């Protein structure tokens, strides 16, 4: 029981991190799959009951099966080790081997990839596992892959995210094994898969054993699949573009054209949609042709091709791609049960497809769904950062790398062709983000929320009755605001403009104010009215002008005062009438010049004073002087002219004369002088000079 175990001459060998002969292979079972992980179960024998599992778990272990074509390695990472008891020949251990890619299922992550192809994403994603293979990953790709603007790994393992991206792009994967290592191989063409050459089919007769690897059971099968794909999608940048795309498969049997329609199709242009529809059709049609086989082809693994030869069966001469292989090996030594009853130490069962059939991985990995809204912080350059569509950048709370999102559209309360509402969230704000179809690759900002750093415009709950829209001055200090106070008895609409306020109304504007109105203008006020202006004041009207007032009327000016009108001018008054002036007074007219003189000048034409109903009275406290510089002075009365004064002097130049005419001439006086030779006495009368 304590004798060392020797495996060098055995058909099956096991090598682990504990050494080549610490564990000896008893039994090997497992399966590998195209586009899936392999899992191998190993039963081994050891001489000790206390193997160091810490030195074993997480390390490579390799099973080698000896064939006529050389040893076939099956390498994997030990993910489970178990002591299974003690038997006649030693202690038994059960090991589970899985690919290093399985380790990616142990790590869940959330991160964002910007402007990368699927190859760049996978390379970055799997870089942390590079030390687990030699090499760990190998790309055998022939297609060109587009740059993806925005791709999110959201609450999913590295494994699921990688598989989801490969299925989306039509990339297959399998594993190539070597001693102490295995490599993840990525392909997009069936011809990139290595071939093991021909393997014959020979029916099993129970008596003869073939000399090399062969199949003894072969069964072709067909499956009815979806035969056509129709897709559509929507691109907000080209909302009117045709987006529908379809593809019909190659099925010739009845019901082979059953169509499947899906939305969204995961594309932004119709020509790309046609490629996606073709890819989806191949994913469906790839499940049609299958061949089930049983044999002892230890060299045939998932991802390898084989050509069928030997006894004629349907498909002989064709080449097939192995989709899955199940392996079973029993060692011939250590009393483990020997070979199976069929006489073969190794047997396998296989699922294959013709290498001419569509080879695209089916979409099996679920896309993570964001259940409900999230919040995120607005980021970017400066204070406001948006593009032509008003899209902003946000940083999600779950993103530990500090990456920002793609440009996210912002839901507005109204959005039309050049009209609607527009509020751009600013950097530092916390916004509510939802996801179209729950897809983490399709964020949409639907709202804003306050937080401990960004408080409401007014303290709460003291101002809970206010509704507020307050902005913040960009690149400065200040704000614009429109707020509503709804507290009973204090209702108010408040508007604050940090600088200018413009109102443009193309037709009527009506304002009705139930009580007082107060208006204060700190500087100038200008008012332009294209047509009429009417002001009606129910009571008094008072205007105070500290400096000058200028009134310019292009047409007539009419003032009507029902009661009295008083005009008080502290300084001078100047009035110019360029045409006719008419002054009509229904009652009395009184002009008083308290100090100084009164002067009336008529430049051309005559001056007439007409008193129609009564007399005219002129009272002057001092002298009255009437001078006609170029003409005469005529006084005419319908009855008589009375000139009454203490003395009266009528005087003409020596070369002229004074003429008094009439029916009678009466001259009365105490003394009368007519053309005296001596100068008449000085009477004190006014001279006409």
UniProtKB/TrEMBL annotation:
Q: Which UniProt keywords apply?
A: Secreted
Q: Name one Pfam family in it.
A: Gp5_trimer_C
Disordered: annotated span: 510-540
Stretches assigned to the Gp5/Type VI secretion system Vgr protein OB-fold domain: 385-450
Domain of life, source organism: Bacteria
Can you cite an annotated GO cellular component? Answer: extracellular region
Instruction: Kindly list the places in or outside the cell where this protein is found, as annotated in its UniProt entry.
Output: Secreted
The record ties this protein, via SUPFAM superfamilies, to:
gp5 N-terminal domain-like, Phage fibre proteins, Phage tail proteins
Per UniProt, residues of the Gp5/Type VI secretion system Vgr C-terminal trimerisation domain are 468-572
Q: Which family does it belong to?
A: Belongs to the VgrG protein family.
Q: What is this protein called?
A: Type VI secretion system secreted protein VgrG
The organism's lineage?
A: Bacteria, Pseudomonadati, Pseudomonadota, Alphaproteobacteria, Rhodobacterales
């Amino acid at each position: 029981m304590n004798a060392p175990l020797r495996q060098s001459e055995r058909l099956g060998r096991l090598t682990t991190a504990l050494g080549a002969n610490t564990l000896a292979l008893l039994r090997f079972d497992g399966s590998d799959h195209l586009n899936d992980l392999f899992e191998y179960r190993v039963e081994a024998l050891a001489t000790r009951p206390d193997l160091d599992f810490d030195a074993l778990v997480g390390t490579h272990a390799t099973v080698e099966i000896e064939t006529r074509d050389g040893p076939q390695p099956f390498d994997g990472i030990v993910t489970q080790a178990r002591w299974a008891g003690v038997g006649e020949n030693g202690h038994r251990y059960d090991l589970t081997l899985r690919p290093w890619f399985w380790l990616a299922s142990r790590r869940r992550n959330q991160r964002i990839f910007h402007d990368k192809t699927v190859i760049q994403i996978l390379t970055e994603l799997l870089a942390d596992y590079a030390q687990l293979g030699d090499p760990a990953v190998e790309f055998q790709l022939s297609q060109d892959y587009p740059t993806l603007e925005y791709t999110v790994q959201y609450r999913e393992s590295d494994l699921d995210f990688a598989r989801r991206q490969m299925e989306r792009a039509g990339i297959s994967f399998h594993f190539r094994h070597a001693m102490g290592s295995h490599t993840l191989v990525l392909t997009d063409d069936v011809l990139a898969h290595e071939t093991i050459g021909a393997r014959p089919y020979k029916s099993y007769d129970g008596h003869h054993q073939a000399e090399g690897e062969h199949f003894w059971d072969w069964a072709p099968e067909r499956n009815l699949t979806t035969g056509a794909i129709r897709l559509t999608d929507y691109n907000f940048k080209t909302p009117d573009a045709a987006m529908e795309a379809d593809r019909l498969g190659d099925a010739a049997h009845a019901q082979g054209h059953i169509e499947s329609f899906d939305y969204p199709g995961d594309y932004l242009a119709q020509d790309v949609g046609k490629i996606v529809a073709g890819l989806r059709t191949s994913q469906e049609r790839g499940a049609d042709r299958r061949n089930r086989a049983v044999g002892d082809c230890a060299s045939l693994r998932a991802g390898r091709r084989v050509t069928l030869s030997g006894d004629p069966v349907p498909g002989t001469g064709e080449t097939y791609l192995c989709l899955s292989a199940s392996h079973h090996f029993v060692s011939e030594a250590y009393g483990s049960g020997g070979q199976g009853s069929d006489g073969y130490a190794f047997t396998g069962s296989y699922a294959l497809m013709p290498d001419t059939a569509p080879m695209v991985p089916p979409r099996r990995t679920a896309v993570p769904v964001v259940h409900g809204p999230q919040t995120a912080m607005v980021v970017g350059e400066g204070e406001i950062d948006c593009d032509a569509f008003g899209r902003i950048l946000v940083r999600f709370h779950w993103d530990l790398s500090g990456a920002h999102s793609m440009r996210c559209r912002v839901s507005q309360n109204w959005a039309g062709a050049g009209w609607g509402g527009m509020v751009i969230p600013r950097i530092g704000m916390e916004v509510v983000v939802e996801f179209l179809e729950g897809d983490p690759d399709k964020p949409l900002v639907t709202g804003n929320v306050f937080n401990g750093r960004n408080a409401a415009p007014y303290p709460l709950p003291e101002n809970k009755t206010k509704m507020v829209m307050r902005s913040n001055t960009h690149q400065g200090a200040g704000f614009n605001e429109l707020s509503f106070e709804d507290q009973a008895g204090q209702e108010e609409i408040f508007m604050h403009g940090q600088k200018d306020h413009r109102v443009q109304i193309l037709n009527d504007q009506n304002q009705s104010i139930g009580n007082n109105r107060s208006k204060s203008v700190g500087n100038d006020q200008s008012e332009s009215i294209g047509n009429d202006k009417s002001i009606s004041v129910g009571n008094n009207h008072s205007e105070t002008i500290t400096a000058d007032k200028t009134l310019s009327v292009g047409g007539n000016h009419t003032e009507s005062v029902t009661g009295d009108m008083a005009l008080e001018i502290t300084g001078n008054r100047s009035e110019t009438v360029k045409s006719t002036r008419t002054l009509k007074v229904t009652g009395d007219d009184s002009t008083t010049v308290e100090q100084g003189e009164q002067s009336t000048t008529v430049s051309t034409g005559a001056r007439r004073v007409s008193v129609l109903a009564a007399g005219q009275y002129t009272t002057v406290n001092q002298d009255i002087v009437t001078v006609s510089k170029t003409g005469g002075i005529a006084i005419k009365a319908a009855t008589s002219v009375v000139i009454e004064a203490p003395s009266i002097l009528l005087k003409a130049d020596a070369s002229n004369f004074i003429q008094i005419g009439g029916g009678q001439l009466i001259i009365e006086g105490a003394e009368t002088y007519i053309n005296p030779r001596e100068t008449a006495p000085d009477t004190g009368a006014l001279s006409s000079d």
